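Title: Request for sanity check on L-aspartate dehydrogenase prediction

Description:
We are preparing a figure and want to confirm that the structure record we downloaded matches what your pipeline produces today. Could someone re-run it with the sequence below and paste the raw structure tokens into this thread? We only need the token string, no images.
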Amino acid sequence: MNIGVIGAGAIAQFLAQQLQHDDAYTMTDALVRHADKHRDFAKAYGVTLHTDVATFLNSSIDIVVEAATIEAVRQFLPSIVEKKPVVVISVGAFADATFYESMTELLEQHGQRLYLPSGAIGGLDLLQNAAALQGIERVSLTTTKPASSLTSELLDERRIIFQGTAREAVAQFPKNMNVSIMLALSAMSFHAIDVTLIADPYATQNTHDIHMTGTFGEASLTIKNNPLPTNPKTSYLAAMSIIGTLRRMQHHIIIA
């Protein structure tokens, strides 16, 4: 299958590198804002650059992978789901209930699929299973990140810089809190998610502490993420989750 990627940054480059010798997928095209900035990327991986979404979608691609921003999802997804299946990593776009509902309607209308990788966290299968019978009571997410990635202020101790809902979290920190939206979508409830964001001047990893309670019982999970080697602001696990999603699409036995 031919992949068209949106973006040419760290995640897109990671995907291109990982898929170079893949038997099932080939990255052939990329949709970017400024082609001149990404000539080296195109040359290194044999990718055709596009700045127009229509020509991008009319190329030989079979599936689209978004590896850009929330804004790119809002701008391009309505056109994409009319023609292609798509993998979206910038799930913060779905904090907007109206946008989420409109995309659901378009997907049903055109018979396409939207895949949301688990990103920088795990345990989403548990949430989805409990939510299937409305069995979620509360979910708390406490995310701790290096202070320099969250604030320009020089801190000498840990500081809580946000407490609130998943929607509020991604509105204030759109590049940092996609994980809260994945939890909310998996739990089928934006009201059940309590989010705390901590800036830690001594942290070297992003840490996500998740606690879930419901009719199933309770569960706790801690994920400590290493950064992508080529970009310290990007989660290695988030990039891996896209590859994992693509590979699972090819499986005949699905762990569900």
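Thanks, this matches our download. DSSP finds nine helices and 13 strands in the chain.
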